[in-house]
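Posting for a labmate who doesn't have an account.
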Amino acid sequence: MKDKNTDSVQNRFTAYLMAAVGNKRISYIERKMRQYEREQVQVDLLEKNHTDFDAQFHAYIMEKTASGNWEILKELRALAESERLIKALGRLKERDRSILFARVFEELTFSELAEKFRMEPKQAEMAYYYILRKLRKELEGKNGF
């Protein structure tokens, strides 16, 4: 009788463990699926907003082109190019940006640049033209950074 009773307890305990493991597995899979669905919704929203903006922008351009309003197109193009330039300048290292601004806005010579940034005049010249090449590649879409 004792053996029959222990077998019964053992069977019930095994069934309990199997049910607990099964439930844990199900809740884990459900949690992962909810997480995946949330991530997909966010990705879809990002892609949808981007696609919607592109479609609206192209529709706007076509509308303005059809109406013969070429000045707005020129302004839009200049705005887009200036925005790309600002982003490209933001990706430059702080020192490169300082060299570029000192040369362009302060109109320093290469020898003055060299003195300000503690380098040789030839190094200042090479650094300036290197920065210009990086910007040109970035604006042409070749991602030189």
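Reply:
Got it, the structure tokens are right above this. Residues 80-145 form a domain with the Arc Repressor Mutant, subunit A fold (CATH 1.10.10.10).
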